[in-house]
């Protein structure tokens, strides 16, 4: 068994049954992805459009591609024909563009709203109050081709796991509030994308349904 297959096997034994694993393959070469694929992995996450475009052509057709990184609206058109979930919608403008491109290619594109809960200046996402305000605006209801399917966040990048847990807890409370107030009758709004290699345990304690894991599967990335 390859190291990647072993890593996947170990990880699967650690994930709650309700949690799906996104294998974050950014910066890793195709042979590494193939090893994960042969070990049964089907959901892969990439964070750069050009890299994703290249990999799509080289991997089997039944891979589910998730775009997990910051996405510029002008690049949505490249991934709209095949992307299965866009994790990090951080502006109304990006959501509107996903809607536009979904309409163009005739696909309802699933996406998650990114909330900024980390105690850091540098991360993208709606602030909690901005997100609530955007939801109350009702503007998103016009976007029938952008299928809002839940939320995504990144916790503060720290070894203080109480801090990390508090971030996930805040995101989950917001998810539950938005679910109750705006999507009570919509079964599509159900995903909580949080947790990476170093904090997926904490994420699972706070409602994660998707964990995005790279290093624990593929090893360190070379930039
Ligand atoms: C790279 C990345 C991950 C994976 O991080 P690891 O620490 O390697 O597990 C998860 N989410 C996002 C948004 C990323 O960019």
Describe the structure.
The protein is α/β, with parallel strands linked by helices. It has one domain: Alpha-Beta Barrel (TIM Barrel), CATH 3.20.20.10. It is 41% helix and 17% strand. The chain has 9 helices and 8 strands. Strand 1, helix 2 and strand 2 form a beta-alpha-beta unit. The radius of gyration is 17 Å and the shape is globular. Pyridoxal-5'-phosphate binds next to strand 8 and helix 9. The site of pyridoxal-5'-phosphate (PLP) has 12 residues, from strand 8 and helix 9.
Outline of the structure:
This protein is an alpha/beta fold and 223 residues long.
What is the CATH T-level topology?
TIM Barrel
Number of domains: 1
Oligomer: single chain
Major sheet: size, sense and barrel closure?
8 strands, parallel
Which small compounds were modeled alongside the protein? pyridoxal-5'-phosphate
Give the total of beta strands.
Answer: 8
With helices defined by DSSP (H or I, 4 residues minimum), what is the helix count?
Answer: 9
What is the typical, i.e. mean, pLDDT? 97
The CATH class name reads Alpha Beta
Key structural traits:
223 residues; alpha/beta; eight-stranded parallel beta sheet; 8 strands; 41% helix; globular; binds pyridoxal-5'-phosphate
Q: Which SSEs are present, and which pair or pack?
A:
Blueprint lengths: L2 H12 L5 E5 L5 H9 L4 E4 L2 H10 L5 E4 L8 H4 L5 E5 L2 H14 L3 E6 L13 H10 L8 E7 L8 H22 L8 E3 L6 H6 L4 E4 L1 H4 L5
Parallel strand pairs: 1-2, 1-8, 2-3, 3-4, 4-5, 5-6, 6-7
Helix pairs in contact: 6-7
The structure holds pyridoxal-5'-phosphate.
């Amino acid at each position: 068994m390859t190291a990647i297959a072993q890593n996947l096997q170990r990880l699967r034994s650690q994930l709650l049954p309700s949690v799906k694993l996104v294998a974050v393959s950014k910066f890793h070469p195709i042979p590494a992805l193939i090893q994960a694929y042969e070990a049964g992995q089907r959901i892969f996450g990439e964070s750069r459009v050009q890299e994703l475009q290249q990999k799509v052509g080289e991997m089997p057709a039944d891979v589910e591609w998730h775009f997990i990184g910051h996405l510029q609206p002008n690049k949505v058109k490249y991934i709209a024909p095949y992307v299965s979930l866009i994790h990090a919608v951080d502006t109304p403008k990006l959501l509107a563009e996903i809607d536009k491109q979904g309409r163009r290619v005739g696909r309802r594109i699933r996406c998650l709203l990114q909330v900024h809960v980390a105690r850091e200046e540098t991360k993208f996402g709606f602030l909690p109050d901005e997100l609530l305000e955007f939801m109350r605006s009702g503007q998103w209801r016009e976007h029938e081709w952008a299928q809002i399917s839940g939320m995504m966040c990144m916790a503060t990048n720290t070894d203080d796991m109480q801090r990390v847990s508090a971030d996930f807890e805040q995101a989950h409370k917001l998810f539950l509030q938005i679910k109750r107030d705006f999507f009570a009758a919509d079964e599509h709004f159900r995903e909580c994308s949080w947790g990476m290699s170093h904090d997926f345990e904490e994420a699972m304690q706070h409602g994660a349904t998707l964990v995005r894991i790279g290093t624990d599967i593929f090893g360190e990335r070379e930039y």
